[in-house]
Amino acid sequence: MSSRLTVVVSQAQGKNPAKRALEESIVAALILESGLDVSVVPYLYDLHAEHTGRMFLEGVKGDMCVLTWNFPRASFWLLDRDGIRGHYGESQLKPAVDVDEDEEEAEAQPAKGIGSVEVPERWIYCLDLRDFNNHEPFVQEVRRIAAECRERRANTQAAKADAKPVMVTLGSVLGNGAVNHTEINGKPRFTPEQLLTPPNRRWYPVIDYSRCTNCMECLDFCLFGVYGVDKLDRIAVENQDSCKKGCPACSRVCPEQAIMFPDYKTPAIAGAPVGAIGGLKIDLTKLFGGDVKDALGQAVLERDRELVADGREAVGMAVGIPRRQTGKADGPKDELDNLMDQLDSLDL
Amino acid sequence: MPGELTFMMGKFAAVLPVDFRYARNHMWCREHEGRLRFGFTSYAVRLMKDVYFLDWTVDTGTTLLLKQHIGHIETSKAQSDLFAPIAGRLVEFNKELLRDPSGINVDNYGPGWLFDMEGEIGDTMTAEEYFQFLDAGWETTQRILKGHV
Q1: I need a labelling partner for A146 at 20 to 30 A (CA). Which of A36, A206, A287, B79 fits?
Q2: pTM here?
Q3: Which fold would CATH assign to domain B20-122?
Q4: What is the C-alpha separation between A114 and A189, in angstroms, rounded?
Q5: How many domains does chain A have?
Q6: Chain A residues touching B25 at Cβ < 8 A
Q7: pLDDT of B26-74, one tens digit each?
Q8: Distance to chain B for A342, nearest Cα, Å
């Protein structure tokens, strides 16, 4: 396993100079640091399977720290969806805002979702580039993460050495002691130009499997064939490009708020961290002319709009309306549930 | 002062010139060289604070429906999608703002205008009507702000 930490900066969409400057100053500060491999790829969410940036990410086998312009929860599950899996690395980076005391108390509850599968023994940390507008906090956090990863590897190796005799793997790429899978014969596998080929913008849901209970309500609700099930009968985003740009309807009907659209304006749908409402910007869309409905009404409206745009019939409440599980009310609501309720109750 | 109404947002006085018309999405409207010019009201600007980014998602010349999505704004305190205040043809965006959107904060009723359209004023309101509209919605608006800030 690689002894280095791969740091990946995912660029913002568009050409916002302030965002570019932040990305560049982070890279500049870290590029000469020992023990780090620093790379830049375009906007993570837009990377399709054949994009060099995506192939690069798939090639990274060790611990990874990914800096994106999205919420960490969205970035982490986005990578997971692309088969770039690992354990969730907890960042200690917190945006510089006053956090209400009562928000601090909410400790992470045991995950009730179905979780990911085939998670390798490595950790993926996602940092949100919107949290600070200067590079220092990010650079410090990357250093802290690098140290944390080194320590964890050292502990794991010590434990392994105690437990079993040394095992030699022959012939596999992993076993040849290569410390860096992003290089071949000491040269980078991909040129920066290849890595940074601008991808087209995309739009599709990302499932947070730590929350998803596999209830299939999204599968019933979406009439565009976006969802399917995998070989293990787990819900999966099967045809992501069938998804309708701008439409977050399935996210609204998900009873666990496990469906994220990283580019959506409402933070709770874009994958906002649990309990972090204090630091978020106010969304004035409703005030500035957006119509308001309850979550399900809104979802039905959004779905009908897309159906009509496709030359199909609007179906209203007639098809695939969630049967809100009866046992659901028993569980305590967590911060994210409350956040969603709060957004829904802003009837303007 | 004659010529304007003042809507109190807590301690902040949002000025509403009486010779302008007002759309429900908190944009003002007035005739300018045979077209209709639009900009944010002081009420809207106060809610947003300093404008950082302004992004239009439609091109000039586009014929818009009422409430059609036309862009996005991000400020120090808020973000929002933006919608067409009336139905009509979008003639021109304020190019100064595309270079530096903070002009909205400097003078939202003057050089900080947003765009010009061709169309009918439709159900835009007078200053007096807009004042009533703000007054009726003020409590809900405060709930939005308090829910988040």
Answers
A1: A206
A2: 0.62
A3: OB fold (Dihydrolipoamide Acetyltransferase, E2P) (2.40.50)
A4: 35
A5: 2
A6: 287-289
A7: 999 999 999 999 999 999 999 888 998 999 999 999 999 998 999 999 8
A8: 8
